[in-house]
TrEMBL record:
<dbReference type="InterPro" id="IPR022398">
    <property type="entry name" value="Peptidase_S8_His-AS"/>
</dbReference>
<keyword id="KW-0812">Transmembrane</keyword>
<keyword id="KW-0732">Signal</keyword>
<feature type="domain" description="Peptidase S8/S53">
    <location>
        <begin position="59"/>
        <end position="302"/>
    </location>
</feature>
<dbReference type="InterPro" id="IPR050131">
    <property type="entry name" value="Peptidase_S8_subtilisin-like"/>
</dbReference>
<keyword id="KW-0645">Protease</keyword>
<dbReference type="InterPro" id="IPR036852">
    <property type="entry name" value="Peptidase_S8/S53_dom_sf"/>
</dbReference>
<keyword id="KW-0378">Hydrolase</keyword>
<dbReference type="InterPro" id="IPR023828">
    <property type="entry name" value="Peptidase_S8_Ser-AS"/>
</dbReference>
<protein>
    <recommendedName>
        <fullName>Peptidase S8/S53 domain-containing protein</fullName>
    </recommendedName>
</protein>
<dbReference type="InterPro" id="IPR000209">
    <property type="entry name" value="Peptidase_S8/S53_dom"/>
</dbReference>
<dbReference type="InterPro" id="IPR015500">
    <property type="entry name" value="Peptidase_S8_subtilisin-rel"/>
</dbReference>
<keyword id="KW-1133">Transmembrane helix</keyword>
<feature type="transmembrane region" description="Helical">
    <location>
        <begin position="359"/>
        <end position="379"/>
    </location>
</feature>
<keyword id="KW-0720">Serine protease</keyword>
<feature type="active site" description="Charge relay system">
    <location>
        <position position="105"/>
    </location>
</feature>
<keyword id="KW-0472">Membrane</keyword>
Length: 417
């Protein structure tokens, strides 16, 4: 497993404002404006119970590559020494670092993973002691539109070869590109946990086309839910969804020194990447497939079925649950006890007596009813001399030409008085 110490000789931390500010002309348009600081404790941090999680692991010694729009390494929650490595920019020509961001997308992703706590802000990262390796492959604010797949693939290859333990890919699109597929295969073969966003193009309840890179083998695909645990309507459904995580109105860092509320699977994926970093920090003996299996096995089941994958990522359970590799033990053969002969005899005797009593009661009731019917027939027959009688109909009412006087609810007209 790679460590931050192993990378120190190869990459340089981005110190100071000048190093992390976008180089002149680096942004296609004006950089996103500064955002205000948010002091409140975000709902995702409450839901995932960060304080309880951090009692067991903080991500120390684990390198998480954020292959995205870059990372603002000067943000107050990301500028601690060793927090953000130099990284690499593959979007622009030249030997530029990955530690600057024009659109705040990669900065938000990196902060959800590893933002350090600071006074006056309730927000913090899920793995605050993890190290971020920024790999800049676009100036996009999400999706793969406008992202060159060869550039994305080069960024993934760089992250793997630079020693990343976890790679976060908050990009999604419908194209199965062989360059990206080969880069993912390289990461899987090098024992890297790869996490990718499932995408934000869902329309209606039916699963859509598979999205990539979440749809590749060995990648944990992540959907987004809101604070009620319901899937965001835009979060895509399909076999690429392995887990869900907070992705509706989640708070994250934004350039230059503030915070933003963001929506989408791009910001759900880093919660899973951070959980993988926590597990790799606490259990360095686990391989990448074992880490992924642990995250799936400890997820909190969701009532929404396949649209939620294995359920909501649960960092606390991923760190603390005692899982076993052995298959379930076979259920023992049911041994029925031999009946007691005396008890069988007594039960049979009581059953016979009960059946006899029921039959006697039925016969007695039938005889009583029959006797009553016979007595009634004899009595009426003697009274009429056993002669047949014809029913007499009541006399018919005479037909009236007008309503009777009492039907008037008001005094009758003068002619009738």
């Amino acid at each position: 497993m790679g460590t931050a110490a192993a990378l120190a000789a190869a990459v340089v931390v981005c110190p100071g404002a000048a190093a992390a500010a976008p180089p002149p002309g680096a942004c296609g348009s004006e950089p996103a404006p500064a955002s205000p600081v948010v002091t409140e404790l975000p709902w995702a941090q409450k839901t995932l119970d960060f304080p309880a999680v951090h009692e067991h692991a903080t991500g120390a010694g684990v390198v998480v590559a954020v292959v995205d729009s870059g990372v603002d390494a000067d943000h107050p929650q990301l500028r601690q020494p060793g927090k953000v490595l130099r990284g690499q920019d593959f979007f622009l020509v030249g030997d530029l670092p990955g530690g600057f961001d024009c659109v705040s997308h990669g900065t938000g992703v990196a902060s959800i993973i590893a933002a350090a706590p600071v006074a006056g802000a309730g927000f913090t990262g899920l793995a605050p002691d993890a190290t971020i390796l920024p790999v800049r492959i676009s100036e996009s604010d999400g999706g793969t539109e406008g992202i060159d797949p060869e550039v994305l693939a080069r960024g993934i290859w760089f992250a793997v070869d630079a020693g990343a333990d976890v790679i976060n890919l908050s990009v999604a699109g419908g194209a199965d590109d062989h360059f990206v597929r080969d880069a993912i295969r390289h990461a899987v073969e090098r024992d890297v946990v790869v996490v990718a966003a499932a995408g934000n193009g869902q329309e209606g309840p039916a699963p859509g086309p598979v999205t990539y890179p979440a749809g590749y083998d060995g990648v944990l695909g992540v959907g987004a839910v809101d604070m009620a645990g319901a899937r965001l309507p835009s979060s895509q459904i399909g076999p690429q969804v392995d887990l869900v995580a907070p992705g509706g109105s989640v708070l994250c860092a934004a350039r230059v020194a503030g915070h933003q509320y963001r929506d989408g699977t791009s910001f759900a994926a880093p919660f899973v990447a951070a959980t993988a970093a926590l597990v790799r920090s606490a259990r360095p003996d686990l391989s990448a497939p074992e880490v992924a299996a642990r995250l799936l096995a400890t997820a909190t089941p969701s009532p929404g079925g396949a649209a939620y994958g294995a359920g909501m990522v649960n960092p606390y359970r991923a760190l603390t649950a005692a899982l076993v590799d052995a298959p379930p033990a076979a259920a023992p053969v049911l041994q029925r006890p031999s009946p007691d002969p005396e008890q069988v005899r007594v039960s049979a005797w009581w059953a016979g007596r009960t059946a006899g009593a029921r039959l006697l009661a039925v016969l007695t009731l039938a005889a009583a009813v029959l006797g009553a019917v016979v007595a009634l027939v004899l009595t009426r027959g003697r009274r009429t001399g056993w002669r047949a009688r014809r029913a007499e109909l009541p006399p018919a009412e005479p037909v009236r030409d007008e309503l009777p006087e009492e039907m008037f609810l008001v005094p009758p007209p003068p002619a009738d008085r």
